[in-house]
Amino acid sequence: MKHVIALDVGGTGMKAALVGADGTLLHEARRATARERGPEAVIETILGFAADLRALGSERYGEPASAAGVAVPGIVDAADGIAVYAANLGWRDVPLRALLSERLDGIPVALGHDVRTGGLAEGRIGAGHGADRFLFVPLGTGIAGAIGIGGVIEAGAHGYAGEIGHIVVRPGGTECGCGQHGCLERYASASAVSLAWARVSGDPDADAADCAKAVESGDPAAVRIWQDAVDALADGLVTALTLLDPRTLIIGGGLAEAGETLFTPLRAAVERRVTFQKLPAIVPAALGDTAGCLGAGLLAWDLLAEGPADHGPTASPVPTASPVPTVPPVPTTSPVPPQPVDPEVSA
What we know:
Elements: E1 3-9, E2 13-20, E3 25-32, H1 39-61, E4 68-72, E5 75-77, E6 82-86, E7 91-94, H2 96-103, E8 109-113, H3 114-125, E9 133-138, E10 146-149, E11 152-154, H4 185-188, H5 190-201, H6 208-216, H7 220-244, E12 248-252, H8 260-273, E13 281-284, H9 291-306
Helix pairs in contact: 1-2, 3-9, 5-6, 5-7, 6-7, 7-8
């Protein structure tokens, strides 16, 4: 049975799958990233995980994976297959595509940025399915974005497109790790809400989920913190939709776990701010923490659909296959706990 390997590498853990040509998740697995052992150990963990998946696929389905896709955080040079920089993983200029292809006996490998790869999945087979233009914005430790146009993600001339978290919404405000003051992610990310609520509530372990519950119970301090975050988010989103005119605006990440506690005031806040702009549909993400892995599978199938290309040190011609079709939505994960914001890994 023809299948591909999909890997989503995070700061603490990795999600992986074998994905069939019809979109079936044939096998799913998770493994610790092992970043505490250093960047070389992280790379070896990724390579070993991929090799184990290839062996499993050969044993179960009678043939090895036809391609692989991997999503990683930080700065990514997808064209050359280089993981340029990731503070949380401690690496610089890692030729990850070549290393993976070599470990996997020369199959083609696609490398993608984690947020853009997750956005690809949400746009094609998740909440944005059928939308020709969408913007995916996950609200986690930081805030990033993926711009979808015609079924593909726009990376920009230098790979920085979609960094909505560093739109300045409060000039002269809180300092951001990127060097600016007043960036959106300092006010509307899950970690920003967590830090604000922990400070006001007096509970150092309180997080954004606790703040949302307090909002639902009518706590005035929680309502104020929540509304401040919603207003900042609306300011940033209106800037984005003015520039991009998306048909669908997909909100994901930890803060979106609050459901209508977030979406009802957010839709109202955005609507109050628009003048000539067309309001997009504002919807929650559908794929949860599987989006990156599913997107990595899409990248792998896209390589096969493109036909022969130099996607690894010994890449060889491969047959084409269809992109992964729609899969059922799955629950999303809990808000990301507060931690230092990495301006290069803002999701």
